[in-house]
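Input.
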Amino acid sequence: MTEIQIPAGPAALSGSLTIPESSKALVLFAHGSGSSRHSPRNQYVARILNRASLGTLLFDLLTPEEEALDIYTREHRFNIGLLAKRLMHATKWARQQQESRDLHIGYFGSSTGAAAALVAAAELSQDVGAVVSRGGRPDLAGDSLPKVQSPTLLIVGSNDDIVIELNEMAHDQMRCEVKLDVIPGATHLFEEPGALEQVAKLASDWFSLYLSPR
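Output.
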C-alpha cells in the first residue's frame, strides 16, 4: 500500500493505493457521508478485491478542514456535485500514474458516495468500466442516472426499507446494464454476521467480470 496525495483543484486529498501484481483493474472508492478512507467496511471490501487481483484506491473526498466544518454544517456530505468532481480528479490522477494508467477503472460507492460515483461515471463514460453501490443513495444522482453507461450493481440490505425503495426507483431510471441485489437480513451498514462478506464477494465478482480485458 502506498500513501498518496491527489490534487483536486485547490484541495489535496489523501489516499491509499494498492495494486497487486498482475492487476488489470483499479477500483476507486467513494465513501459515504461522515466517513473517510479509513472506513473499516470499505477497507475490508478493498482487501477482498486485492485478493482477486484488483487494485484499489481509497481516498478522502473532503480535506480535513472541510471534514471538520461538515461535522457541524453537513454542507459537504450531500454536495453530490462536489464529491463527483473529487472522484473525477482522482480518476484523472490515476490515469496519469505510470503504475495505474493502463488499468481498467471501476467505482465502489457507499451511501452518498454511490451517487457521486454514478454522476462521475456518467461524465466519464469512456473511462469507467463498472460501478458497485453498497447501501447507496443512487437516487441522489438525479438526472445523471439515465446517462450512466457503466454496468452497475446496486447492493442493499433487506432490512433497509427506505433505501431499498430509493434503489428500486434509481434502478428504473437507468438505461445501462443494472442489477439490484438484496442481502437477506442485512441492515444499512451490513453489520450482521456474513453480510459484509456477501457484499465483498458480489462486488469482487462484478468487477472481475466487467473490468477484465476484453
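The two ends are 27 Å apart (CA to CA).
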